[in-house]
Design goal:
- With 469 residues, this protein is α+β, with helices and mostly antiparallel strands.
- Helix 6 packs across helix 7.
- It is globular.
């Protein structure tokens, strides 16, 4: 008779919670699942708080409704699985702007993360150099080639397209720079098209055609009541034992399973399990694997992260434009890199008292020194810069909140996907009962993290079934 499985999920973010839920749904009845979270709060970068008497997101604010193939995203599928589909809401204002040359200009349509598919549409923001995008008689990229986004776009469309369009778009998502970030990881559809198309314009159009979207179909969604409801529902439905303030400090193989060392050095707890889903950032994962899988640890340990701070202000009846928010190119010299007008963008957050919730993101990769400022200083700088961009003095905030996310956003350099694939292949060959999951490997965004956790859970189930346990 097979023994009851014991599975540890290290990391209580949405990736780990999705893994635990998938294990509960697919593993044999009676499987013991324990989630270890080193902090006192589960959900990772999904954190709903309260400001000025109303709910507000202090982390991720929304999820994509569709996956790259055009189907329902993993986040939406999870929401449905948890019985929360009736809570999905969409932005009521979708138009955003770019802060360039001291003013706001609408973000041009027809771009792919800022890379234009129609050069004429972006001239109000940037001046492309189309003569450089010539047909050289071969695809832009080789079959397995990966390049930095900035290198490709600068060579084909010029510096202004990168600096004024692509860089702020990528910066809003990754807090990174186009000249550092991997095309294959951050824009996989464009990378695929670039392996067959001979011009960048052709590649953008091919990528757009491969993922059509019906006119008016919402791109983003969130949940009324906040994304914290998704966290709570996932944790409840997964039925795992969730241990908060439980740092896993060591991970060692024991027979065909694993021994976890949990808790403080002076009073450690040792736990033995059959399998582990490692759903923590790459560097902590590398430290845990340094003794057991040195090659894997070396590969994933190369990944660097950017830190950011999210400053949210509650402003009494400010004069805000009819925009969802704006992005700021690094060339503008502002601390703010993006801003969202929550109570304009999301109709369900609008308040009868006229109070507006405005959030700004600060912190760019390799510029983390700016984040050393005290909360009060960050909030004052954000208020001043918002007033300048909007060209109107904003009223003094009646409430505010600064949420710091240290080491929050992975910086995927060219070759990232190959490094991750090699690391996972090495684990499958030598330690198949351990699976890596999370944004550090598969990309940012709630749907990607959910899918990553679910895939890791499936791999664990396959490995344990194969071992006859």
């Amino acid at each position: 008779m097979a023994t009851r499985w014991r599975v540890a999920v290290v990391g209580g973010g949405i990736t780990g919670l999705a893994a635990a839920l998938r294990l509960r749904d697919r593993a044999p009845e009676g499987t013991e699942i324990t989630v270890y979270e080193q902090s006192g709060v589960i959900g990772g970068k999904l954190r709903t708080g309260e400001l000025a008497g109303g709910p507000v997101e202090f982390g991720a604010e929304s999820f994509l409704m569709r996956d790259p193939a055009g189907g329902e995203s993993a986040a939406v599928t999870l929401v449905r699985r948890l019985g929360l589909a009736d809570r999905i809401v969409h932005p009521t204002v979708g138009q955003a702007a770019l802060a360039v040359d001291g003013g706001l200009r609408p973000i041009p349509g027809g771009t792919l993360v800022g890379v234009p598919g129609d050069l004429a549409k972006v001239t109000a923001v940037a001046r492309p150099t189309p003569v450089a995008d010539h047909d050289g008689g071969r695809p832009l990229l080789g079959p397995d080639e990966d390049v930095a986004v900035g290198a490709l776009v600068r060579a084909r469309f010029g510096d202004e397209v990168v600096d004024r369009l692509v860089d702020p778009m990528l910066g809003g998502v990754y807090a990174g720079r186009a000249d550092d970030l991997s095309l294959a990881t951050t824009m996989p559809a464009l990378a695929r098209a670039a392996r067959t198309e001979h011009t960048l314009l052709g590649a953008v159009r091919a990528a757009q055609a491969a993922t059509p979207r019906a006119p008016g179909e919402p791109v983003f969604g969130t949940l009324s009541g906040g994304l914290g409801t998704l966290v709570d529902a996932a944790a409840t439905a997964g039925g795992a034992t969730v241990r908060r303030n439980a740092a896993v400090r060591e991970l060692a193989p024991v027979g065909s399973g694993w021994r976890l060392t949990v808790g403080p050095t002076r009073d450690p707890e040792h736990v033995e399990v059959d399998a582990v889903v490692l759903a923590v950032p790459a560097r902590p994962a590398a430290r845990l694997l340094a003794e057991t899988a040195a090659e894997v640890a070396a590969r994933i340990g190369e990944l660097d992260y950017a830190s950011v701070a999210l400053v949210t202000l509650a402003l009494p009846e400010p004069a805000l434009p009819a925009l969802s928010g704006f992005l700021v190119p690094g060339t503008e010299g502002l601390l703010i890199k993006a801003s969202t007008f929550f109570t304009t963008k999301w109709g369900h957050l609008r308040r009868s008292d006229g109070l507006a919730l405005v959030r700004a993101s600060v912190g760019r990769y390799r510029d983390e020194a700016q984040l050393q400022r005290p909360d009060q200083d960050l909030a004052a700088t954000v208020h001043r810069e918002l007033s300048g961009v909007l060209d109107t003095p904003l009223p003094a905030p009646v409430d505010g909140h600064v949420q710091r996310w240290g080491g929050a956003l992975p910086q995927y350099t060219p070759g990232h996907l190959d490094r991750v694939a090699a690391a996972r292949a090495a684990l499958r060959a030598t330690r198949p009962t351990l699976a890596l999951a999370g944004a550090g490997y598969d990309g940012v965004g709630i749907p990607v993290c959910v899918r990553s956790g679910e895939t890791a859970a499936e791999e664990i189930i396959t490995a344990l079934e194969g071992s006859g346990r």
